[in-house]
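Wed. Picked up where I left off yesterday with 4-hydroxy-tetrahydrodipicolinate reductase. The coffee machine is broken again, so keeping this brief.
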Amino acid sequence: MKQIRIGIFGFGKTGKVVAHEFLNESLFTLAWVVRKSNQDHHKYASRLLGHEFDAGEIFSIEDIHNGFFLERPVDALVDFSGSTGIYLYKKAAEAGIPIVAAISKYEQEEINLIKTFSKYTAVLHSPNITLGINVLMVAAQILQKIAPHADIEIVEEHFKGKKETSGTAVRIANVLGLNVEQHLNSIRVGGIVGRHEIIFGMPNQTIRLLHESISRAAFGQGAIFAVKYLLGQPPGLYTMETIIAEMFRENIPVY
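Structure written out below (tokens, as returned):
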């Protein structure tokens, strides 16, 4: 089987882990990585991540020009850089390259740009691309419909240095129609990667839906899942949440 060529934007803490996950999957070949700075310019991500082969040549954003994506073709592009990274791959979208945009927060101008890209190619955007968190959100929405009068609280836990409220927790509150200030509780201790819990309280029982990220590798596995889904899909805007919801519908047990 022909390997799927991947290009990655972003080579920070999460980007490196994501690159490592793609390098470990035999179905994929890492074609290149684009990072903001000139650090490790033209070195190979594979070597920097401990592999003994050359893959994922590193470029800086200064290397991106109109012909970049034609000279270095890929089958899918994965973005774990920052909100402004989206301005760099317009030509990739116009060339029909599927895009996985795993950025936690975009400004409205950038959301509009994503929508423009989706006219040319399949674009998946989810603030949290881990498979588990999207299963959690879909399951929570189903449970809310089953038990509409339940009290609902969201608890998010992250490492001590994380100052802002979890974007994923805010997203959960929004899809459940909850007031963030009243129903979202944040805890900052130690080195917790990420833990999200949705508590449904009823008079005689409590239901807890919990997702915990043990490693950033979960983001890489989510990106791999997303790429596999997008390949062959028509142009349009996709989310992990809608994909999981579709799979829920297809796999409801019949009694």
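Quick read: The first strand starts at residue 4 and ends at 9.
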